[in-house]
Amino acid sequence: MAATKPLAKATLVLGGARSGKSRYAESLIEAEGGGIYIATAQALDSEMTDRIGKHRERRGEIWRTIEAPTDLLGALTSPACKGQAVLVDCLTLWVSNLMMNDHDVAREISMLCAALPSLDARVVFVSNEVGLGIVPENAMARQFRDYAGILHQEIARVANRVVFVAAGLPMMMKDED
Predict the structure, then answer these.
(1) Annotated domain spans of the chain
(2) Is the pTM of this model over 0.90?
(3) Which of 6, 49, 107, 159 is most buried, most CB within 10 Å of its CB?
(4) What's the rounded Cα separation, in Å, for the pair 154 and 36?
(5) pLDDT at residue 2 above 60?
(6) Cα dist. 14→38, 68, 170, 173, 175 in Å?
């Protein structure tokens, strides 16, 4: 499943839950010999603690992890990421974290997308496609879905590559590199 092309300046990897998107995205960075893993997840309960532990174990020693639940742009522009291959996993957790901490989500999305072309790193973003299901029944879930959809459209607009993963199979949607 590893990449056969050089890593693009910006890649968006979308897919549903348990689609294989994170493993595919990791393979892109592993083909480069490793890199920086920006984790947006927070271990707020034992289940998430276990998930994070399994992800770290699977990734191994070729990764350096930076935890950035809300300050994603700060992490991406940090000296640690300069000139590196960087994996951001995942954008939907980032949006959730922003919402739960009363950040201006639209502003954060705008700032991230505006900064993306000038980042001194090659970045792979992982995100859950949440717009393929039914309309959520509550206002916060609908707002989350809307923010995720806007974020995906904006990242896809500025990204060089967009890949959709289903059943572990990557499908190229955009390749401008």
Answers:
(1) 10-175
(2) yes
(3) 159
(4) 23
(5) no
(6) 17, 20, 9, 10, 14
